[in-house]
Design the sequence.
């Protein structure tokens, strides 16, 4: 199984957008961590089978190593990666820019 959080695996335009997003978040004081960029089909099936992705989230996905069209984020604060709704709301506002 293969999965990565490295930006280099993203398609060039998506990587540029991700880098811009991260810079804008940093400027806004948001401590963002990219948790995943790409994954192979085997890892996607593993996520779906174990409840980490919807059962309908089958392959191919935007996270496919062949696509490199998506990245996942969290708050880069140990123990509070996903519990701050206002953090994600603000990230969403920045992403829409």
Sequence:
């Amino acid at each position: 199984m293969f999965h990565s959080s490295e930006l280099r695996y993203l398609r060039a335009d998506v990587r540029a957008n991700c880098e811009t997003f991260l810079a804008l978040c940093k400027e806004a004081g948001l401590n963002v961590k990219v948790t995943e960029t790409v994954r192979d089909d085997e890892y996607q099936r593993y996520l779906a089978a174990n409840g980490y992705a919807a059962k309908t989230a089958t392959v191919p996905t935007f996270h496919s190593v062949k696509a490199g069209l998506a990245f996942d984020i969290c708050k880069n604060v140990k123990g509070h990666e996903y519990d701050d709704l206002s953090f994600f709301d603000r990230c969403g506002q920045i992403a829409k820019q």
In short: The first strand starts at residue 3 and ends at 4. The chain is about 40% helix and 15% strand. The CA atoms of residues 14 and 52 lie 24 Å apart.
